[in-house]
Every structure is written in C-alpha cells, then in structure tokens.
C-alpha cells in the first residue's frame, strides 16, 4: 500500500451561491441571474460578381483562401456569377477581415476588380 506525502487533490471549491440579499428595510430580495455570456458575433465573407474577373481566378481564390475543394469552389463561383454575390465562409471578425484583405490584395495584384466584403451574420 502506498501513502501520499501530501493530501490528495480536493475538488475545487463550489462557486459562491448568490443568496438572498437583505435591503435596509429588512425585506428579502431574491436576485435572479439574467446575464449570460453571448457567443461572439460571426462574420461572413461575401464575394461580389463583376464582368471582368476570370472565373478561374475566383475558383483559385476560393481554394487558396477559403479552403474549398475545386468542385465546391466552382459551385460557389457560379452562384456568385448568377446571383451577384455569395458567401465564401463564416469566421470571427478578425479572421473575416483578413480573408477580405487577402482577396482584395490578390485581385489587385492580378489586375482584377474582384470585390469582397465582410458582414455580420443574421
Ligand atoms: N462574372 C465573371 C465572369 O463572367 C466571373 C466572376 C464570378 C467574377 C464570381 C467575380 O465574384 C465573382 N468572368
């Protein structure tokens, strides 16, 4: 049989229970915990159609920066081509902003007018 030199770890103390608060008049007020932490706002990167950017360039951008396979990238590109715009992915605010930058930078360097924006989901 083994003996421990120190006490075994105990469970962390339970969080304090918010008990009844007593106001000056001696009456009892039960507080209801209504605040909840909200999940972070997410942002979708939307790519816009134009008449000049080659379809192949858009497909490659969707693969490179949005991790799409070629078939999915082609479907998204065609959706944008037909509908005028389409969602490339949904991310936290900073990541979405970076994706937009990457798209605009690549398009600018290649001399294409491709545009993308990030917008809050819902
Ligand atoms: N409309 C372009 C063309 O016919 C293709 C295109 C698709 C451009 C999607 C932009 O976001 C875009 N060459």
Automatic annotation (TrEMBL):
Q: Does the keyword rRNA-binding apply?
A: no
Bias kind Pro residues: ranges: 9-18
List the GO biological process terms: protein catabolic process; proteolysis
Domain Adaptor protein ClpS core as annotated: residue spans:
39-116
Q: Which InterPro entries match?
A: ClpS (IPR022935), ClpS_core (IPR003769), Ribosomal_bL12_C/ClpS-like (IPR014719)
Q: Which GO terms describe its molecular function?
A: peptidase activity
Keywords, ordered alphabetically: Hydrolase, Protease
Tell me the superkingdom of the source: Bacteria
Q: Give the span(s) annotated as Disordered.
A: 1-25
Alphabetical list of PANTHER family matching this protein: ATP-DEPENDENT CLP PROTEASE ADAPTER PROTEIN CLPS, ATP-DEPENDENT CLP PROTEASE ADAPTER PROTEIN CLPS1, CHLOROPLASTIC
Similarity field: Belongs to the ClpS family.
User: What is the role of this chain?
Assistant: Involved in the modulation of the specificity of the ClpAP-mediated ATP-dependent protein degradation.
Database matches in HAMAP family: ClpS
Q: How does it assemble?
A: Binds to the N-terminal domain of the chaperone ClpA.
Write down what this protein is called: ATP-dependent Clp protease adapter protein ClpS
**Organism whose genome encodes this protein:** Paenacidovorax monticola
**Gene transcribed to yield this protein:** clpS
């Amino acid at each position: 049989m083994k003996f421990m030199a120190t006490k075994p770890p105990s469970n962390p103390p339970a969080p304090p229970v918010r008990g009844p608060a007593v106001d000056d008049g001696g009456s009892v007020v039960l507080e209801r915990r209504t605040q909840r932490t909200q999940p972070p706002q997410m942002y979708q990167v939307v790519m816009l159609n134009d008449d000049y950017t080659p379809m192949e360039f858009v497909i490659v951008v969707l693969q490179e920066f949005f991790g799409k396979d070629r078939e999915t990238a082609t479907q998204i590109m065609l959706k944008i081509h037909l509908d005028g715009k389409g969602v490339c992915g949904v991310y936290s605010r900073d990541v979405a902003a970076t994706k937009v930058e990457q798209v605009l930078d690549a398009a600018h360097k290649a001399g294409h007018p491709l545009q993308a924006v990030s917008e809050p989901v819902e």
